[in-house]
Design a protein that fits this description.
By secondary structure, the chain is mainly α. About 80% of the residues lie in helices and about 0% in strands. α1 packs antiparallel against α2.
Length: about 70
């Protein structure tokens, strides 16, 4: 596996984590748990955003990584 494909796989996994947190937040009845899940989801979203930027940089720097 190339670095770019590893980064993209990590990005996909983080998106899955984000979706899972969202699902849990919607299903829980406890307000404190909802708040904690939303905060965590927000942190994961920031990481996803940063990682997307890095994927773009990798693709610009190394054309062979585009589209993996």
């Amino acid at each position: 596996m190339t670095i770019a494909s590893d980064v993209k796989q990590c990005l996909a996994s983080l998106k899955g984590v984000e979706a899972g947190l969202s699902s849990l937040a919607l299903r829980t009845q406890d307000d404190q748990s909802k708040h904690t899940l939303h905060e965590t989801m927000s942190v994961v979203n920031e990481i996803v955003t940063d990682l997307k930027k890095r994927v773009g940089e990798l693709e610009r720097e190394e054309a062979q990584y585009k589209g993996f």
